[in-house]
Amino acid sequence: MPIRPKCISSTTRENIIRSRGRSTYRGHRKATRSSSKPAHQDQARISRPAPQMWCSAQQSIEEAQAFYKSLKDRVVGFRRKADDVAVMPGFLPVIGRTPKEAADKLAELDQWTDLKSAMPLLEERIGHSLTAYDPDAPLPDLPISDQLRSRAELLTALARRENLTIRQLALRVAAGRGHHIVLGTPVEIADRMQQWFDGRAADGFNVMPAFFPEGLEDFTQLVVPILQERGLFRTDYSGSTLRDHLGLNRPTLVAPHPMQI
User: Fold this and answer.
1) Residues 87 and 13 placed together within one structural domain of the fold
2) How many structural domains are present in the chain?
3) Domain limits at 243?
4) Distances (CA, A) of 11 to 8, 87, 89, 180, 227
5) Residue 68 domain flag
6) Once rounded to an integer, what is the mean pLDDT over residues 230-259?
7) Which of 94, 126, 180, 213 has the fewest C-beta atoms lying within 10 Å of its C-beta?
8) Chain centroid to CA 151: how far?
9) CB within 8 A of 191, min separation 6: which ones?
10) How far apart are CA 133 and CA 67, in angstroms?
């Protein structure tokens, strides 16, 4: 089934990793991009004729909508169809039958996370050492590093928006590798996915369960049926390849864009 306009498509990190670089349909490759850069910074990739799946890490619907529009506009600017590129942000659902159960699961996940292991992940994405700062204090005002600029901007905005301490931000990064963490009941998770999909912030989601196998089972057994009832998720597969499942078309060769000559 096509990703738009009929359904939400989802996959897992494992599926993306296994498919990277492989021929998925009659010798044509599907390109997977993991990037949250502004679209103008990736014009060389966008201009390529192969269908692409972009895995981004925006933390709010407003950030995701801006990234989505910028990317799709650039794709059209290279005389390609907007649907040739699927935007599938990382999405880590922590699901409980009640809000308290979901909160308890996240707290349990945090307890399993060693801050000594989490801090280097945060420092890598922020682009600065944080050892001199109190982990229970807010993230200090730091110049945005060019090392991973887009991630640094997104994480800094998240810390300011949710009043997170350095410790809390490090645990968020360790849990979801900087991707969007959604906490709630199955209906609340489905509502958030539909909000992003209907609001053109995503074409689908790179679902990253916090726990295995329980986290994946919670999503498939509790959230997927709700999406199916709303007509947002397939009830059967229409093809046999990952390209088919993601609704990506075979690439069509086009005349070079003037910027490529």
Assistant:
1) yes
2) 2
3) 9-91+187-213+232-260
4) 10, 12, 11, 15, 14
5) yes
6) 73
7) 213
8) 12
9) none
10) 32
Query: In whole angstroms, what is the distance from residue 200 CA to residue 194 CA?
Result: 10
Identify the burial level of 120 via C-beta atoms within 10 angstroms of its C-beta, where 0-12 means exposed, 13-18 middle and 19 or more buried.
middle
d(CA 61, CA 200): 9
pLDDT at 8 (0 to 100) = 56
Question: Length of the chain in residues, anyone?
Answer: 261
User: At which residue do the structure tokens 């070079």 appear?
Assistant: 256
Taking CA 242 as the corner, what is the angle to CA 48 and CA 184, rounded to the nearest 5 degrees?
105
Rg (CA), the chain: 19
Query: CA-to-CA distance for 118 and 170, rounded, in angstroms?
Result: 5
> Do both 102 and 149 map to the same domain?
yes
Return all residues near 162 (Cβ < 8 A) that are at least 6 apart: none
CA distances from 143 to 5, 127, 133, 153, 174 (A): 40, 9, 15, 10, 22
Q: Are 233 and 8 in contact (CB under 8 A)?
A: yes
How do residues 96-116 score in pLDDT, each as one tens digit?
Answer: 999 999 999 988 888 888 888
Statement: the pTM of the whole predicted model exceeds 0.85: no
**Mean pLDDT of the residues in the chain:** 78
Question: Which residues are 54's β-sheet partners?
Answer: 33, 87
Peptide bond into 213 cis (omega under 30): yes
